[in-house]
Amino acid sequence: MPKIEVRFRHSHQVHSQVLAAVTQALRQADLVRSVQMPDAAPAGSSFSPPATSKHERREAIKQSLTEFFDRQSRGGQQQKAFTFDRSLPTQQPSPPGEQPTPASSQPIDRPRAFIQLHGSYIVEETANGISVIDQHALHERLLFEELKEKRQSQGLTKQPLLVPQMIELSPAEFLKVMSLKDGLAALGIDIEEFGRSSLVVRAVPQQLSDCDPVELVKDVLAELEQEEAGQAADSQTDVILKVMACKAAVKAGQRLSPQEISALLDKRDTGEYTSTCPHGRPSTLMFSLAELEKQFGRR
Q1: Which 3 state secondary structure label does DSSP give 246?
Q2: Average pLDDT over residues 193-204
Q3: 249 Cβ contact list (under 8 Å, min separation 6)
Q4: What is the pLDDT of residue 51?
């Protein structure tokens, strides 16, 4: 009779090897979403592309994009040493021999050209087209990875509050938060019991010193409730770190200076898993030159 279940003698070793292989494959993969749109010409249209070669059309597109982005970003790119306000120290570039950033999302080899739209999205010229970046989703991912690394290496620095913040909770919420007291303290959030269903927040991580401590704790509760309802596999620590990264990241609608945008993109270039935010939403959409040529009838 065939077996329907196989057990490994050294299951932990097998798990570690599979995990390492999957992690390495994800690091080498280009996970940036490439956008493909339907044909631009309406039904019955008599439009036909100009009778020029594909090479000439491609060069014309490149030249037009280059001139446009150069005009938008001119004048703000000299201060390259700017450090992005709400960030942690950047990761070091990958050692020699590791897989480089996939070419489809690689910036071009010259001063970066970009523009911010609607205070929420960054459009960046790349070697093979343009990338549209959700600034909050990208910064959230970068902060999440850096908070995890900092927690594992040296711990998160606490910022004591000048005025401790009191939170009124339901009995169920109070019991849930108090059960997390030690885990929150390890992540830089100090809470104390203050009455039957109240508590006070006495410290928060240094990276969240500008955030509302009451909102932070309530958002942690809400996120944990959603994760439990969805039976997600994330640990409580990762859930809390996701909330912390979300609260500290730049927001949609927040205007950034050219220096801030450049610093954010520099951190992206040295980071990992930057194609999505910690919750799985895409942070970047890639529009290839070929797709743009198709939409403008040049192909």
Answers
A1: helix
A2: 93
A3: 86, 136, 139, 140, 143
A4: 47
From 3.40.50.970, 3.40.50.300, 3.40.50.2000, 3.30.1370.100, which CATH number describes the 156-248 domain? 3.30.1370.100
pLDDT at 297: 87
Domain 33-143+252-295 fold is formyl-coa transferase, domain 3 (3.30.1540)
How far is it, in rounded angstroms, from Cα 250 to Cα 124?
Answer: 18
- Taking the C-alpha atoms of residue 134 and residue 136, their distance in angstroms, rounded to an integer, is 6
* pTM for the model: 0.68
What stretch of H or E contains 138? helix 135-153
Q: Where are the domains of the chain?
A: 33-143+252-295, 156-248
Parallel, antiparallel or unpaired: strands 284-288 and 33-34: parallel
Q: At what angle do helices 236-248 and 135-153 cross, to 10 degrees?
A: 130
3 state DSSP class of 86: coil
CATH fold match for the domains 33-143+252-295 and 156-248? no
| Residues across the chain | 299
**C-alpha closest to that of 291 among 45, 30, 68, 37:** 37
Q: Rounded to whole angstroms, how far apart are CA atoms 261 and 273?
A: 19
Cα–Cα distance for residue pair 298/56, rounded to 1 Å: 10
11 CA to centre of own chain: 33
- Nearest C-alpha neighbor of 130 from the set 255, 274, 288, 299: 288
Distant-in-sequence, close-in-space partners of 256: CB < 8 Å, separation ≥ 6: 116, 122, 135, 250, 264
